[in-house]
């Protein structure tokens, strides 16, 4: 039995500092990184969260640490590396949409390895969350993910995994092998149509869910963008329609969904019953710009669900 006073969710992965070009040409600072977004989303909804990673001993690492502390995320497993930089990404805006340019090679997070896995923290938590990006940034980081999953399984900590395939980081063949390995241990797996199309040439939500269940995941969530989400387990599948909102920026909506889902699971809510809450949180996260600023708090999600029911 887990200590209920312990951390609910531990995420391991790559945080990034964002520089977003504004209309006047200047760049506005912000934050990103899928697993970091997830723990912040969950923390805003009342979950006790922790993050495990490495940041540079620079102003960007300091800013990220300040963000996590402000949001109530435990940072005891975030190490500062004086010899490597914090990863950065730039957002520029073009007629065809946003363009993301990354400066992450040789970053502190990419140097993370099994020695950086906070084993006691994971063992005492209810959920470990990792992603395909956590695996893709380097071979040592992939080893860290494998070690974290092994620790979680031994301790009966639930494993949450998001495929989050990024072709700029690794080729589909290499990614498939690592993602399938993590899937076989996943209690909760989230993927998307785009990921599965790139990885497996499959864009049918029901078929995608069946594939990941067949690989060993206990529950699979296939996000469908504005169309909602397909949830599947051994008992069957169901599609929950998306909420119609005036979205301005969908950046990080998938992370908002995952963070909300895991926050509900930490409260003892079964995954199937947590999906509507997560679906609503994801919709609300698209009403503002950036991955962090529009992440909702619990009262906002509850009001939204209440109004949608009438």
Main sheet? 9 strands, mixed
Order of helices and strands: EEEHEHEEEHEHHEHEHHEEEHHH
Shape: globular
Tally of distinct domains: 1
Task: Tell me the radius of gyration.
Answer: 18 Å
Any idea of the CATH topology? UDP-N-acetylmuramoyl-L-alanine:D-glutamate ligase
Assign the CATH superfamily.
Answer: Ribokinase
Q: Do you know the CATH architecture?
A: 3-Layer(aba) Sandwich
The chain-level structural class is: alpha/beta
Mean of all residue-level pLDDT scores: 93
How would you describe this structure to a colleague?
- The chain has one domain (9-308): Ribokinase (UDP-N-acetylmuramoyl-L-alanine:D-glutamate ligase).
- It has eleven helices and 13 strands.
- The chain has helices spanning 34-44, 59-71, 119-124, 132-136, 139-155, 172-183, 193-200, 205-214, 253-266, 271-284, 298-308; strands at 9-12, 16-21, 27-32, 49-56, 74-81, 88-94, 97-103, 127-131, 158-162, 188-192, 219-223, 229-233, 236-240.
- Helix 1 (34-44) packs across helix 9 (253-266) and helix 9 (253-266) packs antiparallel against helix 10 (271-284).
- It starts with 8 loop residues before the first strand and ends with a helix.
Notable characteristics:
310 residues, alpha/beta, UDP-N-acetylmuramoyl-L-alanine:D-glutamate ligase, nine-stranded mixed beta sheet, four-stranded mixed beta sheet, 11 helices, 25% strand
Blueprint of the fold:
Elements: E1 9-12, E2 16-21, E3 27-32, H1 34-44, E4 49-56, H2 59-71, E5 74-81, E6 88-94, E7 97-103, H3 119-124, E8 127-131, H4 132-136, H5 139-155, E9 158-162, H6 172-183, E10 188-192, H7 193-200, H8 205-214, E11 219-223, E12 229-233, E13 236-240, H9 253-266, H10 271-284, H11 298-308
Parallel strand pairs: 1-4, 1-8, 2-6, 4-5, 8-9, 9-10, 10-11
Antiparallel strand pairs: 2-3, 6-7, 11-12, 12-13
